[in-house]
Design goal:
single chain; eight-stranded antiparallel β-sheet; 16 helices; 54 strands; disordered N terminus
Length: about 1100
């Protein structure tokens, strides 16, 4: 009958059953393990009197040495607090040291006799057991440990040789202060690395073998270093490292050695504990101890913790090394860190008598990917509402870890943590729950979404539409991921003196830039590196590649690749050579680009209808709802804003120049009088604006335009102040005020205003009231006039004013199916946003709020509305293109709109008003054959009836032609280019606007990639050359780009403007194909009229204008 090991009635184990003591070495007698008998007569002789005296003196000297800091502190006159602080620091250091030594002893004891300790603690916590006890699929590998133990001394010899002969010379050569650096001792010790368990994952892939090694190293390693010049010694004596190392053998090949490469990485960050010696003993001081271990752990994670991995190729010329080193992830997890509740209070006041709250923030970690939320002050139930996206490579295996801390000035207090295997997110698709915090109290609310990687673009429109309704901060949600495998380059240009460059590569998408390593002295570098980018909209984003010398000063080549090309490529992949521009004739770069669409595939999620589809926004054809109660008031079909809605105007403020400003700059203690660096500050209607600084000028000329939305409330004033920019405090140069009522009544004001509170100075302002008009007939003329009067130093001028009245919403989704939300809404146009009030706990809120927005380009901009619940996330969204308002009656839409999640509707009114400038210095006349001539003539009569203040600068009169007129001449055989050329007298600049081209010539199979180059002859240098952006594969490109040359009018009349339309001849070539050109003699053009006109393109030999 078998007896349980824990049975108390079992007889005492026989000597055979007991774990045997370590056998004696052959050269040691058996009595080495026996203790001397005190009763025996053969006792060793006692210590001599001299040795006793020496021991007493040594002990006394050590204790006396402790009093030296006390004596020194008293001699110097320091407070006793310094002594107490030093004593506390020493006690803390001693405690950390003792804990580390005790931990090392316990770990060594466990590894020395694992089976006995395991049997003894079989009924203890599973965390104390090796993996092969808790998990039956984890196998022991004692045979492997025996091999490692036998190899360990030889590995120590190799490490000593590596450190002494390779690492030490490199350190000595890196810094002059380290020229005496040396390794005085390198010993790996007698305790080898142990593999506690091995787990093989079958069925993952037929082309790879995947193993998990549970490693544990409790070593007596000793490495000592010394810098003799500074008598500095440091080192490591003892170390612990525990973790799970994943080893992947891939690819499997049909030739020796069967395995092509070995990849190794830690799935999770391993635990590390180091026992320091020498001067590095300071790292065991409390605070520094955890910091030093964290720094070293971060260094290990930088190349050995997912998504980083160590790749060791076993065969030469291995293909796709970069892809093996950085494979595509299994998926993406979108982590919504929503809130927490019931957190513990850590802040105490009055020495703990008064309990405060906490200032919580959260750390979200998946492998090496770490995100930190913002701090919520004085709150035990914080609402974060932040979103992060992480790549996942190993499922199962990787974990999502969230740690919550209380922010403090010294050390942040730990509030709790939670961990979750990513496999549960993959299984659920969407996981929305409150997770309890371990090691503390409270819960954290997470919404986790698994995003699959699709190798085609069929779902891209759905993904983009869904993302518009996702409120995400600090970054917008991603629609795709791009992996760039940078392989090699060929024939890069040499540096000056025919020196080989040290090339590196910068890859950028919008404001995200990543860099490769630099390779020294080669113009054919091989990088074999991988990079990843999250993409918000791959249809419009571009990958910018810059090949540079490692100094970053010399550019060796460049490449701009629209990511839209990948959307039409097979499996969203490009694997090819790319020709570099601004480089050598044969310089090229080999890259593999792989894009994957991020798709949320879950039955709980419904993608919204795509705008523009029938019925997407139109609720007019809804069937009437049945079963309505007579007590319920009828649902309104239109909004009911107050009488002031839509009555706003726009004030355009043109800050021109100033004269006779006072000089504030002084030099040499005031002996030398300088000038001033003036700028202007404007304040009106709660908004403030600031001009640029003009350096050292008492008569500055700014020529900047600002726009602000104003109402007719009486008593408002435009406050203008002029300052001198200084390093410390800006000096006051004067102020003036203008009554807003005066400008609104007159419509226009152009005056020199005397600056007050200063001895001298005056300011030239031009103010114009722009009243919105509910007609789109003048929009094209307004856009063209704005492009003519636009100054380079100002923001783009507004062409329209959008007024939005949001009244209410209905049928919003409930929280967890039963509780109503507390909704609020945000209205966004471009960078401008308006947030409504929050209505508490209702699915049918009434906001009754309005907002106005300046619109630059009504044809392309849109109104974005998001409805969110306080603490519950997005409830729905709406995207309304302003182009729908342009075709609506009176440029207004007033009805119910369906939110894109299919649940919930909003009632709003959106109306657009075109801003027509009456005093821009540009008058619009249409040709007699124009279809809109009657409407324009009526507007001109209206303008003529208004009071007009003549500008001091001569007015420019422009004849705006209509490109779609039926009487226009047909295009020539090479096509036409549309230009506006005029002279801006106020700025003393020649201005040319390249509008578009049409009917360009197509020489090859594909349409050209046209751009327009302008050159002011007879100068052919770069100073007068201008170039538009390049348009892809079109015969009718639209540019609408403005260019300026600063020169007097008489000189402009002696010049000729050379316009060339060109295209890249091929993707692999730097040559440019000339599609046609035209040369304009500016003396033959009325530059004061500035007509927008079509010109026929000619061959290179025929340069005349038409």
């Amino acid at each position: 009958m078998e007896r349980s090991p824990g049975d108390g009635s079992s007889p005492s184990p026989s000597p055979v059953d007991q774990p045997s003591a370590p056998s004696d070495p052959p050269d040691q007698p058996p009595t080495a393990h026996t203790k001397p008998d005190p009763s025996s007569g053969n006792q060793p002789a006692g210590p001599s009197a001299a040795s006793e005296v020496l021991a007493v003196l040594t002990s006394f000297g050590r204790r006396l040495l402790v009093l030296v800091p006390v004596y020194l502190a008293g001699a110097i006159g320091l407070s006793v607090g310094f002594v107490l602080f030093g004593l506390a620091l020493y006690l803390g250091w001693r405690r950390v040291r003792d804990e580390k030594e005790r931990s090392l002893r316990v770990a060594r004891q466990l590894l020395d006799d694992e089976e006995r300790i395991t049997a003894k603690t079989l009924y203890m916590s599973h965390r104390e057991l090796p993996a092969w006890v808790s998990f039956p699929d984890v196998e022991k590998a004692e045979w492997l440990n025996k091999i490692v133990a036998q190899v360990w001394p030889f590995l120590g010899q190799y490490m000593e040789k590596l450190l002494v002969e390779t690492v030490a010379p490199a350190i000595r050569g890196s810094n002059t202060h380290l020229q005496t650096f040396t390794f005085t001792r390198v010993e790996l010790g007698e305790k080898p690395l142990r593999i506690v368990g091995v787990k093989v994952h079958p069925g993952q892939s037929k082309e790879q073998i995947l193993l998990d090694l549970n490693i544990s190293y409790v070593g007596d390693v000793q490495i000592d270093v010394e810098v003799k010049k500074y008598f500095c010694k440091a080192g490591v004596k003892g170390m612990q490292l525990h973790g799970v190392l994943r080893v992947i053998l891939e690819p499997l090949i049909g030739d020796l050695p069967i395995v092509g490469a070995v990849s190794m990485f830690f799935i999770r960050r391993p635990t590390l504990d180091i026992n320091w010696t020498g001067i590095t003993n300071l790292l065991d001081i409390p605070g520094l101890s955890s910091l030093s271990d964290t720094v070293i752990m971060d260094s290990i994670a930088a190349f050995l913790v997912l998504p980083n991995r160590l790749l060791v190729p076993l065969v030469p010329n291995l293909q796709d090394v970069a892809q093996l080193r950085s494979p595509l992830p299994r998926g993406i997890i979108r982590i919504h860190l929503l809130a927490a509740r019931g957190l513990s209070s850590k802040d105490k006041y009055v020495k703990g008598l008064i309990e405060g709250k906490s200032d919580p923030y959260a750390l979200v970690r998946v492998g090496t990917q770490t995100f930190c939320s913002r701090v919520i002050n004085e709150e035990l139930n914080p609402q974060w509402g932040e979103t992060y996206e992480v790549t996942v490579h190993e499922v199962p295996g990787q974990e999502i870890e969230v740690e919550v801390f209380d922010k403090d000035p010294d050390k942040d207090d730990f509030l709790g943590r939670m961990k979750l295997d990513v496999g549960k997110v993959l299984q659920a698709g969407v996981l929305d729950d409150w997770f309890p915090l371990q090691g503390g109290q409270g819960q954290v609310h997470l919404r986790l979404e698994w995003l699959s990687l699709l190798p085609n673009a069929e779902k891209l429109e759905e993904v983009l539409q869904w993302n518009r309704g996702v409120s995400s901060r600090p970054e917008p949600p991603s629609a795709a991921i791009l992996a760039v495998y940078l392989d090699r380059a060929q024939d890069l240009p040499l540096k000056k003196g025919n020196k080989e460059p040290n090339p590196m590569v910068q890859l950028s998408i919008q404001d995200v830039t990543q860099e490769s390593k630099a390779l020294h002295s080669t113009n054919c570098p091989v990088w074999e590196e991988a990079f990843r980018f999250f993409l918000q909209d791959p249809r419009s984003q571009e990958l910018d590649v810059q090949v540079k010398d490692d100094s970053r000063a010399l550019t060796l080549g460049a490449l701009t690749l629209p990511l839209a090309r990948l959307l039409t490529a097979p499996e969203l992949t490009l694997d090819q050579w790319f020709q570099l521009s601004s480089s050598g004739p044969n310089s090229r770069l080999y890259m593999k680009l792989v894009m994957r669409i991020l798709y949320l595939d879950s039955s709980e999620v419904r993608f919204p209808a795509v705008p523009g589809c029938p019925g997407a926004w139109d609720l007019d054809n809804e069937s009437p709802q049945t079963g309505s109660s007579v007590d319920t008031p009828p649902r309104p079909s239109h909004t009911t804003p107050d009488s002031h809605f839509g009555t706003e105007n726009v004030l355009r403020i043109h800050v021109l120049e100033a004269q006779d400003l006072i000089a504030k700059d002084r030099f040499l203690g005031g002996l030398v009088k300088g000038k001033s660096d003036p700028y202007v500050k404007l304040k009106l209607a709660g908004r403030s604006f600031r001009s640029r600084v003009i350096r050292e000028d008492l008569n500055p000329r700014w020529n900047e335009v600002f726009e602000v939305i104003v109402t007719s409330i009486p008593g408002q004033e435009l406050e203008v102040e002029v300052f001198d920019k200084d390093l410390d405090k800006d000096d006051f140069l004067g102020r003036c005020k203008v009554s807003l009522t005066t400008v609104l009544n007159s419509g226009f004001l152009d005056e020199w205003l005397t600056l007050e509170d200063v001895p001298s100075g005056r300011l030239h302002l031009r103010l114009e009231r722009l009243t919105p008009r509910p007609t789109a007939a003048e929009l094209e003329e307004v856009l063209q006039v704005n492009s003519l009067i636009q100054t380079q130093k100002s923001a783009e001028l507004a062409a329209a004013l959008l007024s939005v009245y949001l009244e209410r919403a209905e049928d919003l989704p409930l929280r967890k199916g039963t509780k109503p939300p507390s909704p609020y809404a945000t209205l966004t146009v471009g960078d401008a946003m308006h947030k409504t009030k929050t209505v508490s706990q209702t699915s049918a809120p009434v906001w009754d709020e309005s907002a106005s927005f300046l619109i630059r380009k009504p044809n392309t901009e849109s109104l974005e509305l998001q409805v969110r619940g306080e603490g519950t996330g997005a409830l729905g969204s709406l995207s309304l293109p302003l182009s729908e308002l342009l075709v609506a009656d009176q440029l207004c839409l007033d009805r119910w709109f369906t939110l894109n999640n299919g649940q919930g509707q909003v009632l709003l009114r959106a109306q657009l008003g075109i801003l027509v400038s009456q005093h821009s210095g540009v008058e619009a006349h249409s040709h007699s054959y124009s279809h809109s001539s009657s409407s324009l003539s009526e507007e001109l009569e209206l303008w003529a009836g208004l009071p007009h203040v003549t500008s001091s600068a001569p007015e420019l009169r422009q004849r705006l032609t209509h490109g779609d007129s039926p009487l226009e001449a047909p295009a020539g055989p090479l096509g036409q280019v549309k230009l506006t050329v005029w002279y801006y007298s106020e700025e003393r600049k020649l201005v040319s606007i390249v509008h578009s081209c049409r009917a360009l010539r197509q020489n090859g199979r594909d349409p050209p990639d046209p751009y327009v180059s302008l050159l002011l002859l007879p100068d052919k240098n770069r100073g007068t050359k201008r170039k538009t952006s390049q348009k892809k594969r079109t015969l009718n490109p639209e540019f609408n780009e403005r260019f300026e040359w600063e020169l007097p009018l008489d000189e402009a009349l002696r010049r000729k403007l050379d316009i060339s339309v060109k295209s890249n001849s091929s993707f692999m070539s730097r040559e440019r194909e000339l599609l046609g050109k035209v040369q304009l003699d500016l003396a033959e053009i009325d530059l004061s009229q500035g007509a927008a006109q079509w010109y026929d393109l000619m061959d290179d030999k025929d340069k005349g204008s038409s």
